[in-house]
Amino acid sequence: MISVQSHQQPLSGNKISQFLLTVIGIIAIVLFSSCELFKPISQGNNTDPKDGKEELDPIQGRRVYDPATGTYVLVENAPTDPMDTIIWRDIPSSIEPPIYSTSAPVAPGPGGNPVNPIGVGEGNSQLLSSYNVSVILPFLSDRYNSIDKQIAPNSTWALQFYNGMEMAFDELSDEGVALNVTVMDSKASETQVNNLARTNRELNESHLVIGPYLRSNTAILANKVRSTGGVLVSPHSASSSVSSQNPNYVQVKPTLESHCQAIMQHVLATYKHDQIVLVGMDVPGETMRFDYFQREYERLNGLENTEPLKRLTIDTTKLDMQSIDLKPWFSFDRETVFIVPSWTKETFIYNFLRKLDLDRGQYQTVKVYGMPQWMDYERIDFDYYEKLNVHVSSSVFLDELNPEIRAFKRRYYERYGEIPLEEAFVGYDVSRYFGRMINRFGTKFQLQLEQNPEQLLHTNFDFQRIITPTTTGGMEFPQVERWENKYVNILRFQNYRFTKAE
């Protein structure tokens, strides 16, 4: 059984009320025990976030899913007037108490399931009858406009992520996984997260913590679990410097270095080193990234068999590319691979691709590798992506032809009345995977991550321990810095959409 602390009345309502249900329901669950914000996500369309293809008509009361045909049909005489706003209230535990086991627990969990020791696993991992889970996300409940019934735009990420979590928790409960889930609002505030870390009992007793969003708040919680013995799973931060020498910190998103390594591995599977050109602006932040590719090339080929990869740095005063001649960089008899680990200036990427297309000969072929941010560009001419065989790395790939992806979209829409964004898939995958891991391996489940890779909806999980190199030649074990998912999707732009590259 998976339980949360708040107890709520059964509800009903139309699609509009159902969206408010998600918002206000989260606020009711959030534990009120006590700027760098993420990118706002548009809520004004119903297109797929990757390829822009129309998925569903605008959400309204007349759209009904027909399970016989697997499509959504229009009910002409359905009511379309707005329904009354649902008013939520918490039911005191004295009226509707939590459900407890008939056996006396050694320590009751915050959600009601008893926490009894039932065994010891590998590495002295404690096997328990249930596990305490804290979810800390930026719901921004303090910014909810109760007059206009409007949520803060930046809370969309957390709401979608938690909706996916709820779906996973339901499945885990059906599987017999017992979790005591406590949900808290980070409010995207270091002060709030510090207060929770210092005073919140549920957080102190958590075996698993999932969240938050901002890197600074992730660092606070990473240091917290180092002292409590819990495990922090960070679903968003891709930084390599959140926490040092912390075996209780698990990072779901691959770092920039991992992206560069994956690109180089994909390139060297087909091409020779002298076909590769590294491209970037002549600024330290970009030229330093070249070292990631060089090191991975040397690792794959052995130091004695490697040469420096060719590098093309573009002066920041010449980013329009008008005075740059790219012809000498092309090969006449083989394909040339340009790797461009740059993303901050969309105009530079556009100008480079345009000049690349202009300068190449009729029979000269190229392939360009870019970064995940390229998928979100809005002003670039995607004809260049098609003509120049653009590939990008990405921590997320949703295959629209995958029946499991389509089924998840349908279930999500039927439950929440809106189309799931990629963060809903991430929330679902993270909760289901780590819920099963802690149930199977106990409180030190992270020691088993490397032996349990898994293909999920939004990506694969292939966790590896990141270790601190030792300077002595003794027999001591190297210190674990963190656990990181090293799997990176390589996507190809083909037929004007991104697909998985071979």
Instruction: Give the strand line-up of the largest sheet.
Output: 1-9-8-10-11-12-21-20
Number of helices: 12
Write down how many β-strands occur, each being a DSSP E stretch of 2 or more residues: 23
Distance between the termini: 41 Å
| Low-pLDDT segments, ≥5 res | 6-65, 71-107
Overall 3D geometry? globular
User: How big a fraction of the residues is strand?
Assistant: 15-25%
Chain-averaged pLDDT: 82
How many whole angstroms does the radius of gyration measure? 25 Å
Look at the helices and sheets and give the structural class: alpha/beta
Helix content: 25-40%
Largest sheet: 8 strands, mixed
Describe this protein's structure.
With 502 residues, the chain is of the alpha/beta class. The protein is 29% helix and 19% strand. It contains 12 helices and 23 strands. The strands form 6 sheets. An 8-stranded mixed beta sheet has the order 1-9-8-10-11-12-21-20, with helices on both faces. It has a 7-stranded mixed beta sheet with strand order 14-13-15-16-17-22-23. It has a two-stranded antiparallel sheet with strand order 2-3. Helix 3 packs parallel to helix 5. The longest helix is centred in the last third of the chain and has 20 residues, at 422-441. The radius of gyration is 25 Å and the shape is globular.
